[in-house]
Design brief:
mainly alpha, two-stranded antiparallel ribbon, 2 helices, 39% helix, extended
């Protein structure tokens, strides 16, 4: 039996919530080089450090990915299809001139009208 795919994400979420809950009163001194922040909440410092790490890894991996793709293209290993020719942008629907809707021809008079008795009304009234 395999574990559901959402289970690791749920475990990390529960761990982060427990860490924040148990350290909700902890305060730290944060020295950032040019200034020192005293009594900064530990959970906020950890969260901002996590976000800064994720952002730096994103930026570094984008640079590395670009360098790797350029190297693969230079060696002929990565052949990408040519980009499609730039087509003229489609005109938005609201800018197109509208045509009047076609009106149907009026139907010829028909003498074969059916008359049905209505049972929901009182005939005596």
């Amino acid at each position: 039996m395999t574990a559901p795919r959402w289970l690791p994400a749920a475990a990390v979420t529960v761990f982060a919530a427990a860490l924040a809950w148990f350290n909700r009163g902890e305060r730290v001194a944060l020295d950032v080089g040019i200034a020192t922040f005293y009594r900064a909440p530990l959970t906020v410092v950890l969260f901002l450090a996590f976000l800064a790490g994720m952002l730096s890894m994103l930026l570094l991996s984008l640079r590395q990915d670009r360098r790797l793709r350029d190297e693969l293209r230079a060696r002929g290993i990565l052949d990408l299809p040519a980009p499609p020719a730039a087509a003229a942008p489609a005109e938005p629907e609201w800018q197109r001139p509208q045509q009047a809707p076609e009106r149907p021809e009026p139907a010829a008079a028909d003498d074969r009208t059916d008359i049905y008795v209505r049972y929901d009304e009182d005939p005596a009234a």
